[in-house]
Structure formats: C-alpha cells, structure tokens
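#struct-help
A.M.: can someone run this one for me? Single chain, 304 residues.
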Amino acid sequence: MNPKKPPVPVPLLMVIGIVAISFSSIFIKWSSAPVSVQGMYRLLFTSLLMLPFARPYSGAACALRLKDWLLLGASGVMLALHFLLWMGSLNYTSVASSTMIMALEPLFIMLGAYILYKERNSASAILGMAIAIFGVVFIGWGDIGLSAENLKGDMLSVGGTVAVAAHLLIGQKLVARMPSYLYSLIVFISAAIVFAVYNLVTSTPFFNYPAREWGIFVLLAVVPTVFGHILFNWLLQYASATTVSMNILGEPVGASILAFLLLGEQLSGLQWAGGVLVMAGLGVYLYSGRRKALKLQDSLPNAS
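D.P.: on it. Structure tokens below:
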C-alpha cells in the first residue's frame, strides 16, 4: 500500500463511490435483460470508455510478468462471478436484503487479508466493523424471509460477496506494482470476455434488446462502475483492501433509500435504525484507520 496522500481526501472519495454503487441495484431492477448480458455490456462499455486514456500505460503493460497476467485473469473471473451471482440475486430478493448480505464483504476481506498478507486490525477497527455489520442485519431484518426464492437470492448474494472479496484481495497485491488504471482496464476486459463466453455457452442473445435496455447498460457502466469500482480500485493505492471494502457497508443505506424512493420498496423502523448504525460503524472504522496511518507517518522519520 502506498503511504502517500491522494489529491482528494479519501473520505470524500468514499462517499462518492458509495452513492455511485448504490444506484447499481436500481438499474439492475429496472432492466429486464439477462444479468449475464447486463454484466457483459456494463464491463464492455466501461472498457471502451477507458481505452482512449490507456496509451500512457502501454509501457507498464509490456513490463507485466506471466504471473501478473494470470492474477489479472483470476481477478477478472472473480469480478465476473461477483456480478453474475449478485446481480442474479436481485431477481429473487429485495434490494435491502441483497445489499445487506453484500455488506458482509469486510469479514471475508479481513479473514483473507490476515491469511494471505498477515494484515492485522486494531480492536477499535474490529469494533467499528461489528457495529456496522450489526446495523446491516437490522436493514435486512424485515426482508430476509423464509421462502425458497428469498433463500436462493440470499445464497447467490453470499456467493457474490465471496467472489468480490477475492477480487479485491488480488487487486491489493497487483496495484502495489502496477498503475490502478491499467489494472482496472485489464480486469474489466477479462471479466467482459468471461461473460461473453458464458453467454455463448448458454445461448443467451447478445442483441435484440430495446433502446431502454441499452440506456441502462450505459448507466451501469458510467455510474456504479466508473464512479464506483474504478474509484475503489484507485483507492487501493492509498488504503488497504479491508478499508476499501468498508465502503460496501454504506451501500445498503444508499440502495435501500433509493429503492424506497424509486422502486417503492418499503423500509421498516429497524431498517432505518440499521442505516444509522452502519454509518456509525463505518465512521469508527475509518477513524481507527486514520489514527493508524498518522502513527505510521509519525514513525517514518525515526525509521532511518
């Protein structure tokens, strides 16, 4: 992880990213196209938007080793699997329930970071995560349900959460030695190819969708992907995968509010209370990370 400061404060960038990704589930609910088609065009259009600005990174791409390319491919597969499972979960359960489960991502990230990178968290950071996750449970409490369809949606969301956690952990390793822009572009192209192969194998139509669907594909590429996923990938240069993944805890709040306003999905008092707990826990965690970074910065001059 790069210790230098970003040109824009990290908390502000996190807020922008949270708002952007909160629109993802809304656009998916609005679309009637297969989720594999939504995912493919979302990533394809994002890649096309990025390609004109990729020339400065051609040298870095040529310097990549075979191991780097294999890891990039693995990250792309995990990202495609995440979209396929999580987007599919929205066909069976509500926005609040699906995003609530997705917000458990930091648990998988923290476990994976400890196993792979020996990354430890302070007691206050763990407390912040616990508060936020407790709030997430409140958000989805009234909508988990016991029906077979809801259970299927929940399981798909769990699978998507595991996949995106693996994607972020691989990304943390790669952006330490390559530009985050190049990383995002290659991973998005890889994931789009995975979706294309999946659609070919399953005989899912590539075209013949109304103009409204194409508009949604573009919105999915610009809003939650460019201002969400790309931004979070860029933040991996300045924050750990565990910290970046904490942004997911803000998504259930934003997505649930948008679902209430735009889709008519009702929220209970417990869900509103859970939103407050989520933001409180996120604040505790980020404050803990800031203190840790300041301590590290203060110790650097004495390290030489």
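A.M.: thanks! Residues 10-122+146-249 form one domain.
D.P.: also worth noting: The radius of gyration is 19 Å.
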